[in-house]
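#struct-help
A.M.: can someone run this one for me? Single chain, 84 residues.
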Amino acid sequence: MNNTQLPPVSDDVRLGCPIARPSKIVCIGLNYADHAKETSAIPPPEPVIFLKSTTAITGPNDDIVIPRDSVKTDWEVELAGGDQ
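D.P.: on it. Structure tokens below:
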């Protein structure tokens, strides 16, 4: 089936995260050269590994809460998979 055959999703349907309760979120920072350039950072010689809270997961159209005193909010799109 190609995407021209897929039925449209109604605006009143919430698309949530496809993983219900992950045990952890492991991230790799600055993992591609263009992102390092965007942030004026030097690409690291080894992967930068960090964790995110599992409460950080949202659906594609969900609202997010930006902390009141935030001076810089960086957006990122993450792709995740798991053995669930």
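A.M.: thanks! Residues 33-38 form the longest helix (6 residues).
D.P.: also worth noting: Residues 25-56 form one domain.
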